Amino acid sequence: MIRTILALTFAATMIAGAGAQPAKTAPAVAQPGKLSYAVAGSFAPFAFVRNGTLVGFDVEMGDELAKQLELQPNPLNIEFKGVIPALLGGRVDMINAAMFITEERAKQVEFVPYLRVGTEVVVTKTNPSKITGRDDSLCGKRIAVTLGGIQETYARADDARCKAAGKDSITVMTLPTAQDSLLTVRQGRADALFDSTPGAIKATTELPDVFMTVGTTFEAKTRLGYAVRKNDPQMKAAIEQALAAIVKSGRYREIMQKWALPATMSIFD
């Protein structure tokens, strides 16, 4: 376990000098003895409120990171648009909010990647069209997507593929939001939905008797990361070491399984 020392004392120096194992100096933290991190507690299964308590994959991983650093976890539920200002303002030590790593965000913060996301094929539990994933079972079907989103690009590429193979074309139905697309599928006006992995997990977690995913994750190119300040390399190194220990112990996989995250979301293959 990574030793956490917030201040070196004369006694500690004497012990180290006497031949004890040298301790690693931990990064400075916003609140002594605590790992304070921002979560956006409205994004199941990553972080959400259940019976007045924050729970979810990110929350449990935050507990494990704090444990590795010998600190107490201190999650702060902050609206997503406020998490970067909270970090840059020194209110929290890190962001732990299922944050997509983008070029624009990387200009403001440093990231430690911990998951990856792609796109899922979502259908109703009855799946009357017998869709099996992103394959030929989509040809001739109606696919709902968010207008202008990357999933629309994927659906139109699949339509072209079906046509090139001499199969029935796909009807690409563009809707304003993913929620509209889910409703369209639920009402039977579309056969399937292309949704991001987090969105699909949210739908199947909140309505497990209504929706399910079929096939495997595709186009898994986007990563989620813990964010730290650019001028805090010690914190970044500490989080990287703690995460590596959690992965090695098997707890990372256990927490993924508990919160029904598909194995394809792991970046530690």
From TrEMBL:
Question: One short Pfam family name for this protein?
Answer: SBP_bac_3
Coiled-coil blocks: none
What keywords would UniProt list here? Answer: Signal
Q: Name one GO cellular component term.
A: cell envelope
Please state the span of the N-terminal signal peptide per the UniProt entry: 1-20
- The reply to whether Signal figures as a keyword in the UniProt entry is yes
* Superkingdom of source: Bacteria
Annotated localization: Cell envelope
Cite the Solute-binding protein family 3/N-terminal domain residue spans from the record.
34-263
CDD domains associated with the record: PBP2_MidA_like
Q: Which family does it belong to?
A: Belongs to the bacterial solute-binding protein 3 family.
PANTHER family according to UniProt: ARGININE-BINDING EXTRACELLULAR PROTEIN ARTP, MEMBRANE-BOUND LYTIC MUREIN TRANSGLYCOSYLASE F
Protein name in UniProt: Amino acid ABC transporter substrate-binding protein, PAAT family
Tell me the organism. Answer: Bosea lathyri
The beginning of the lineage is: Bacteria, Pseudomonadati, Pseudomonadota, Alphaproteobacteria, Hyphomicrobiales
